[in-house]
Amino acid sequence: MSVLLSRLLADDVALPQGVADAAISGLTADSRQVKPGFLFAALPGTKVDGAQFIPQAVAAGAAAVVIGDQTTAPPANSILIKSGNPHQLFARIAARFAGSQPDIVVAVTGTNGKTSVAAFVREIWQSMGFRAASIGTIGIVGPQGEEYLAHTTPDPVKLHHALAELAQDHVTHLAMEASSHGLAQFRLDGVRLAAGGFTNLTRDHLDYHATIEDYFDAKMRLFSELLPQGAPAVVNADVDIARDVVTRAKAHGLTLFTVGEKGHDLKLVSCVRDGFGQRLVLATASGQHEIYLPLVGDFQVSNALVAAGLVIATGGEEALVLHALESLKGAKGRLDLVAHSTKGAPIFVDFAHTPDALEKAILALRPYVKRKLAVVFGAGGDRDKGKRPQMGAIAAKHADIPYVTDDNPRSEDPAVIRAAVMAACPGGIDIGDRALAIRTAVEALEEGDILLVAGKGHEPGQTVGGKVLPFSDHDAVKAAVAGQDYHG
Fold first, then answer.
1. What domain count does the chain have?
2. Which of 80, 148, 239, 363 has the lowest tally of Cβ within 10 angstroms?
3. Are 116 and 243 contained in the same domain?
4. Rounded distance, CA 306 to CA 103, Å?
């Protein structure tokens, strides 16, 4: 397949004067993947400037090269396309090259809850008879199964290729996570969005974003730039930052749909715990509705309401949507009841890797604890170091037995990371080997206890140094319950 360069550029950038059009057979921002007829995007990165690889791309047969306005040394024998925002231009080119997308695409942003909301939206649509999929942290989940992804929001070429494949597979409805990295790097530009959702904002990714304000601004691109005017903006009204989100959405001419206790369109009237589920009374324009939500935790109520709002706001029949909430299963690794110990203690796995998410996960389980609540957790390396003592303090305050272990140490010394956590977690048990920490915690469980294994959730590997070693919290828990050693 090939597409004319002029068609890919559309109205964004004109072909250079006097240059003949060219047939583009592929796209990449990696010079090593360039083949004859490809368009190469020489994108400036945080560590490496793609412009330095232009000679290799041209030598490999690149027909066109996208560069920034300030890039010098134009390549020979290929068409040079200059742009003030090459990342955004490349994403739009990728969308045009791929072509097809599902009919209805919604995106959700926020610090925590994106994965659950995307999964819930997919499940609700499926229950209504639509062929639906989701894209995010746990990968691409659709009618053909699951595909793991390296990033919550894939690079534009992979993302738009995936959208086209889903459309070709007759997937009509898609829910996507919109990460702050993906939004800041313009990866979602070119996606034809029908609605956007917002969950919450807490401390995260300050190793990438300079300030919490920059982090918030990145998330707000979904509402201030990507959604078309008049599109629904579904907002969790119960978070402190909701007013600012609503202000941004209104300024862009979006249609507000608010949910939660303070919500207007889908209001939470009451919530009563019932086993490992909750009985909700919801109020809408049509009246009050009583439903049973088979999920644990106040945060899952918020996530379910944002998901329901996204489906209703994009045309879903209210009665069917609310009924579908009663059969939600939740995303893998999100307060996931994995097993029971030999003495009957429930063991949960959760992706909580921020202070706010860890606190919410622990507090969600606290009402069910008859004896002691244990938590196995750690903090990631090469990431915001300020989170480490905060997470240690939260575990010390809310858990009875905190086990501090390795998460993804990456290039850092794992012992140094654990020491930063332990400094704020007096009484914590320091066990660096994650499998050993999980087994130790499992073997110590008594009847009436609950164990939470936090931090990695769905992840199938542990990043140590420059390697990703096979590791699954789910499998480690199951091995521990069976009295077996786990080696990944």
1. 3
2. 148
3. yes
4. 20
Residue 107 has phi, psi (to 5 degrees) of: -130, 145
Domain enclosing residue 10, as ranges: 3-96
Assess whether pLDDT exceeds 50 at residue 209: no
Helix H or strand E segment including 162: helix 156-168
Do 160 and 302 share a domain, yes or no?
A: yes
Query: Within a 13 Å sphere around the CA of 215, how many CA atoms are in the beta-carbon half?
Result: 17
Q: Kindly report the backbone phi and psi dihedral angles of residue 412, in degrees, each rounded to the nearest multiple of 5, phi listed first.
A: -85, 160
Q: Tens of pLDDT along 41-100? A: 999 876 778 889 999 999 999 999 999 987 776 667 789 999 999 999 999 999 999 999
End-to-end CA distance of the chain: 41
- Domain co-membership, 319 together with 459: no
467 and 379 inside one domain: yes
Is the distance from CB of 209 to CB of 182 less than 8 angstroms? no
Considering the entire predicted model, what is its pTM?
0.89
For the stretch 268-300, pLDDT in tens is 999 999 999 999 999 999 999 999 999 999 999
The pLDDT assigned to 75 comes to: 65
As a whole number, mean pLDDT of residues 325-345 equals 94
Q: 415-420: which pairs have CB atoms within 8 A and are 24 or more residues apart?
A: 417/378, 417/379, 417/380, 417/381, 417/388, 418/378, 420/379, 420/385, 420/388, 420/389, 420/392
Structure-token pair, residue 164:
């086209």
How far is residue 470 from each of residues 356, 459, 462, measured CA to CA in Å? Answer: 27, 9, 6
Say if residue 66 is in the same domain as residue 152: no
Of 274, 305, 327, the residue at which a domain comes to its end is 327
Question: Using CA atoms, how far apart are residues 108 and 318, in angstroms rounded to an integer?
Answer: 20
Q: How is 385-403 classified by DSSP, letter by letter?
A: TTHHHHHHHHHHHH-SEEE
- Rounded CA separation 310/53 (Å): 42
| Mean pLDDT, rounded, of the chain | 94
Residue 262 has pLDDT above 50, yes or no: yes
243 and 359 in one domain? no
> Looking at 327, 357, 387, which one is the last position of a domain?
327
Based on the domain organization, do 344 and 320 belong to the same domain?
no
Do 84 and 140 lie in a common domain? no
Spatial CA neighbour of 190 closest among 169, 213, 161: 161
The answer to whether position 487 is within a domain reads no
The token duo for 403 is 């086990």
Q: Taking 50 as the threshold, does the pLDDT of residue 383 lie above it?
A: yes
